[in-house]
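S.,

As promised, the pyridoxal-5'-phosphate run. Input:
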Amino acid sequence: MIEFLNLKSINEKYEKELFNAAKRVIESGWYILSKEVAEFETDFAKYCESDEAIGVCSGLGALGLIFDGYKQMGVLSPKDEVIVASNSYIASILSIVQNDLAPVLVEPDLKTYNLDPKKIEEKITPKTKAILAVHMYGQCADMSEINKIAEKYNLKVIEDAAQAHGATHRGKKSGSLADAAAFSFYPSKNLGAFGDAGCITTNDKELAKVVKTLRNYGSFEKNRNIYKGYNCRLDELQAAMLGVKLRYLDKINKKRELIAEKYLQNIDNPKITLPKVLPQNTHVWHLFVIRVKERKKLQKHLLKNSIQSSIHYPLAPHKQKALGELNSLDLPISEKIHKEVLSIPLYESLEDNETDLIIEALNGFIY
Ligand SMILES: *Cc1c(COP(=O)(O)O)cnc(C)c1O
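Predicted complex:
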């Protein structure tokens, strides 16, 4: 069976260095907010070409702290509207509603699955204060166009870069393309931890200080709490192990890109729509997502050929029970995407003969 994802095979390449990093932390006797987190923050900021990086507990935590941080700074107020793509992962939308802000869902571009800049302006009202640009599946949203609109209406722009570590737009890295960015190091992401972890990047010194305070109970100075903060810290252990994998991230992304190129050149079936990369972007292929009308049949056909697949995501956020207030929205592009997308295996430890079999099976799908 070709598994959809095999984290063990991905991580065993770095086993020795990972064990050494873990040993170093265990022997240090200090497990929360110390030198491993500080070192990883320095390295990750540099990697993202950003001034500041703040390690946090998860991707959702990173997003939430950015929104709460802007509220503490007086930049955002309760009920302010935040524009976000309607096909994003639910975490993006939860981070908005959990901060008492109002998500305004805008349809994506069907070719890139990212926010369609042409559809943003018609949704802007006097209450609109920010745009959350999700870099879907590993490709940056059209940030130059989004930033132009934001400048015109004086909006903050936040990147949800949870799927796009190392992706670029017009030569600039994700994490440096807007006012602030949120990353997730959930184990399956391109830079994956060994549990939950996340990071915020920004060039805004004030925001950096506020989120650093919020992640640790609202306390910057021991026992002085200036905000109603959270426990949303990055662990020393995760930071040390992430530091090992960060050194290989470009290599990991390169391998993923080679597999994606092979798929793009060789998958040839009129029933299957392949993903598109904008010329101004480099894609890091967190997921290789195709579209097909008979999705169930294709999944069955792949399984018959011993190939697992997955769906990102089967149900649109505005159709989820948890977001009942959005259930009546009519978002046909998003609904089409959620009905037709299928993710096929793409990860750095896939072998050549496995990708050959995947291509063969997809090209042999007829119904
Ligand atoms: C994974 C992901 C998140 C959430 O990250 P967690 O670390 O699981 O909290 C947010 N947004 C997007 C687009 C994601 O893919």
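The mean pLDDT is 98. The radius of gyration is 20 Å.

- D.
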